[in-house]
Specification:
The chain is an alpha/beta fold. It contains 10 helices and 34 strands.
Length: 677
């Protein structure tokens, strides 16, 4: 096929070519009248050649031929060889055997010219071994995210290329952050769990931190699947569950309980009282039964950080409400919390009840007007009373206390800020939502309560998701509030016909944090079932600890940008230095200890008395950050923070194929997900 690539107008080009072709016979006729035919042809030939060359030069004709090119590119196969792939959940063999067979079929069907590489992974990727390594020679655990990240950074393939992932999805519910720069086609291996004989520990609920000498609970939820009328189903009446604690390289038995899984579900609760500060690693395991599909999902591990510090809490109100007794009882159950109540009794006389501190006698006249006195408390809880009952000095003292690193909680009583005329008041800036321009009032009804989407792992609600199944998990009133402020995080929501209504939210104000409730009937949980009473008490204790865990000292104040970190993250610290008046300058020295080595941490000055530090957390393990304040070369204060980073979920903790995660991973990369079936 001939194509013309002239820049001239196509119509003009056609006219010129036609005119040039028509001129040839005219020129020959003119020559023929003067000379013989042979001589005329010889004279015309050079002119025709010149005309043809001019046509080619002007119109650039191209002869195009189409030919099929052989396929090229590289297919990178990534095969999951973790222990969960050895589960034999089909008569055709284990998941790994079926995945290898599928891989062989795909490789055999690849067109000639397409290259193929086979890698395998568990906690890291490597070229596939032939024959496969025995299970005992493989490291425990599955880390799909780290494996894909390593391939993305270290294995660059020329386009067109793609990655074929053969896996059951591992145990992490979230897809990895870093993906290779190529489409990922995920093949999920695993059968329908409805036909399994299996016991699984579905979840463990426990606080991330605890106080030395203070009891806390570890709640373990188990689930059983069994085929009808199988011997396995008959063995579910007495299942033993053990709690162990790591001591060096061994696990020491702490407690053992038994329960029935005959109805498919069981909750076992253990109680622990740590005696030493530090990070403690626990293991909960259910004894495997004969005929069980796998014992991999019978074990879960978790870590709890034990701290020395006790929390001082100040509760202030001018009008005692029904919620005070339930709140005081909830916090009094925690020996690590020192509770002080300040409330009005007659006129402008106030009673100080509970733990006293030196210099608090002035509070008999009311809420402190000096932020320095408030700073002696880790958390201030404000009861319900109208805005005009505050003096401007009291309100500004509370604002300064929070902005300079304090923690505050606003309860949702009859005169809560949303219903007590607080809009436009100095305290309005402390709330995580905007306040209505007029009195918002209450919405009355029965509103089911749930943990807010995305807040399941927030330390305030650890152990609360299961409370949603309790009868009576509702509130009977909701304050009409505005929209959430930027950066605010919902913790609890109430369900209405129109959608979700914020019940509890938290946000940062300056260097401090504020929690607010939007109901005056949350306290009724303490008068209902044991499960709801425990959920009410647990929420208040965990809320105080989560807010007040600020890293405050007399000289140093350290705030971290996040509650939890994963391997590969960077923890950012915001540091404030407040030396005593007239004292010598304070110098700072930071270090991080990991893998037995201490490395200095650079500190950047961001303003007068303000510094920042970035702490890379590249690998899993325990990191310990230490910040020293020095005066005249001597250490006057030390801040310590321990990070337990990215402990892998227990291998096989969830044996079901993680189809949703694989689908999201594949679609995000431009590939697709295909189930084994």
């Amino acid at each position: 096929m001939i194509e013309w690539r002239t820049e001239a107008d196509p119509l003009l080009a056609a006219i010129l070519v036609t005119a040039a072709a028509a001129s040839v016979p005219l020129m020959y006729a003119g020559l023929r009248r003067r000379v013989a035919a042979g001589q005329a042809a010889l004279m015309l030939a050079p002119r025709c050649a010149l005309l043809a060359l001019l046509t080619v030069a002007l119109f650039e004709p191209v002869i195009r031929r189409t030919a099929a090119l052989p396929p090229t590119g590289t297919v990178l196969f990534l095969l999951d060889v973790s222990a969960s792939m050895d589960v034999r959940d089909h008569e055709r063999g284990s998941r790994a055997e079926r995945a290898r067979a599928t891989l062989g079929q795909i490789r055999a069907a690849l067109p000639r010219g397409v290259a193929a590489e086979t890698w395998e992974f568990d906690i890291e990727p490597r070229l596939a071994a032939e024959p496969p390594a025995p299970p005992a020679a493989r490291p425990p655990g599955t880390d799909l995210g780290a494996s894909l990240s390593a391939l993305a950074l270290g294995r660059k393939l020329p386009p067109p290329s793609c990655l074929v992932l053969l896996s059951d999805g591992g145990d992490d519910p979230a897809p990895p952050e870093t993906l290779p720069d190529m489409p990922v086609f995920a093949l999920g291996f695993g059968t329908d769990p409805a036909g399994w004989n299996d016991i699984a520990i579905e979840s463990i609920q426990a606080p991330t931190t605890a106080e030395r000498g203070v009891s806390f609970e570890l709640a373990c939820d188990l689930r059983a699947r069994s085929r009808a009328r199988s011997p396995f189903a008959g063995a579910l009446d007495a299942v033993k569950v053990r709690l162990e604690q790591r001591e060096g390289d061994k696990w020491a038995l702490i407690d053992e309980k038994a329960g029935s899984l005959a109805n498919g579900r069981l909750r076992i609760v253990f109680s622990q009282t740590p005696t030493e500060a530090g990070i403690r690693e626990y293991r909960v395991s259910a004894a495997p039964l004969e005929g069980e599909l796998s014992a991999l999902n019978n074990t879960r591990r978790l870590s709890v950080e034990t701290r020395r510090k006790s929390m001082r809490v100040l509760y202030f109100t001018r009008e005692l409400g029904a919620d005070f007794r339930a709140l005081r009882r909830a916090l009094a159950m925690d020996p690590g919390i020192a509770f002080t109540a300040l409330y009005r009794t007659d006129g402008e006389r106030f009673t100080i009840q509970g733990e006293r501190i030196e210099g608090d006698a002035g509070m008999a006249a009311g809420f402190p007007e000096d932020p320095a006195l408030l700073k002696r408390y880790d958390c201030v809880i404000i009861g319900s009373f109208p805005a005009p009952d505050w003096t401007s000095e009291q309100a500004l003292a509370l604002v300064r206390y929070v902005e300079e690193g304090g923690a505050a909680i606003f309860t949702g009583g009859e005169h809560a800020p949303e219903a007590g005329g607080y809009s436009g008041f100095p305290l309005a800036g402390l709330f995580p939502w905007t306040l209505p321009g007029q009195t918002g009032g209450f919405l009355r009804g029965v509103f089911p309560v749930r943990v807010a989407p995305g807040a399941d792992h927030h330390p305030m609600v650890a152990g609360l998701p299961s409370a949603a199944d309790e009868p009576g998990c509702v509130v009977e009133s909701l304050l009409a509030i505005g929209s959430l402020k930027p950066g605010a995080e919902r913790i609890l929501v109430a369900l209405m016909e129109s959608g979700e209504h914020t019940l509890a939210a938290v946000h940062a104000v300056g260097r401090g944090r504020v929690l607010a409730l939007a109901s005056n009937t949350f306290w009724k949980w303490a008068q209902k079932t044991d499960g709801l009473r425990n959920a009410h008490d647990r929420f208040w204790r965990q809320a105080v600890r989560a807010l007040a865990d600020a890293g405050e000292g007399a000289v140093l104040s350290v705030k971290w940008d996040r509650e939890k970190y994963r391997a590969g993250d960077t923890a950012h610290a915001h540091i404030r230095v407040a030396p005593p008046a007239g004292a010598a300058p304070v110098a700072l020295r930071g270090a991080c200890k990991a893998d037995g080595r201490a490395e200095p941490v650079a500190l950047s000055e961001t303003g007068p008395g303000a510094y920042s530090a970035a702490l890379p957390l590249p690998r899993r393990g325990e990191y310990r950050f230490e910040l020293n304040a020095l005066m005249n070369g001597s250490v006057i204060e030390t801040h310590e923070k321990a990070f337990m980073i990215g402990a892998l979920p227990d291998e096989g903790a969830r044996l079901e194929v993680n189809a949703e995660m694989l689908r999201r991973l594949a679609e995000r990369s431009g590939g697709a997900y295909l189930p084994e079936s």
